[in-house]
Structure formats: C-alpha cells, structure tokens
Amino acid sequence: MADDARFGPGARRLAGLAGRLLGWRPAEFWAATPAELATILSPEPHPANAPLSRAELQRMMERDP
Question: Can you tell me the distance from the alpha carbon of 39 to that of 2, in angstroms, rounded to the nearest whole number?
Fold first, then answer.
C-alpha cells in the first residue's frame, strides 16, 4: 500500500486525538505544523519550553534592564 493511501486515516485519527486531548477544533489541527503537534503530544518536555533558571533570568535582566 502506498504511503499516500494511509494519509487520510492517519490524519483523521490525529485530528480526533487533538480534538479530545487538546480541545482543538479542526481548523486548529490543520493550521498546526507536524512539529507543533509532535511537541504538544510528546511525553517529554521540549527543551524550548523548560522554565528559566535563576542564572538565565539574571543574565536577561542584566542585558535588558
């Protein structure tokens, strides 16, 4: 079976999952990138979403008073 033949059912399952877990409407699902969806559904926090350390906050405050 060609990969494109499986796109529809897979997209339908992901759209349903996003609707149930995230409260997304269809337009929000289709506007999201695959990377955004993967990051949101990943059990591991994305490094970009980690809280700032005190040292990072201090550097930012010194740089931009």
Answer: 27
Nearest Cα neighbor of 49 from 60, 61, 40 is: 40
Beta carbons of 14 and 37 less than 8 angstroms apart: yes
Q: How far is 19 from 43, CA to CA, in rounded Å?
A: 18
What pLDDT shows up at residue 4? 57
What are the boundaries of each domain within the chain? 3-63
3-state class of 42 per DSSP?
A: coil
pLDDT of res. 36: 85
Task: State the amino acid at position 16 in one-letter form.
Answer: G
Residue 23 near residue 38, CB atoms below 8 Å: no
What is the token pair recorded at 49? Answer: 């979403």
Q: What is the pLDDT of residue 5?
A: 66
